[in-house]
Amino acid sequence: MRWRLGNFADELQKLQKRKRLKEIQQWTMEGPKDPWRTSKHGPMREVILTAHADWFDAAGDQSTWRGMMAKRRREQAFEDLAVE
Asked: What is the domain partition of the chain in residue ranges?
């Protein structure tokens, strides 16, 4: 609720400053609304996590089975941390 009212007041203030009368009327008629599109699952939030390739390569020599498995463990650790 707080976000709705705050966003609504900010937008009205910006429109008044730019003297956008038609948009002020439309915004006022629509009233405060959530700052996200609603769905049955709630608001969606996305995050992109990255890591430098050197972090994965530090697992060991990729040409050996052990090195490939070490890299896979690092990838899995990264995925687990990202999900947390």
From this structure: 1-37, 53-83
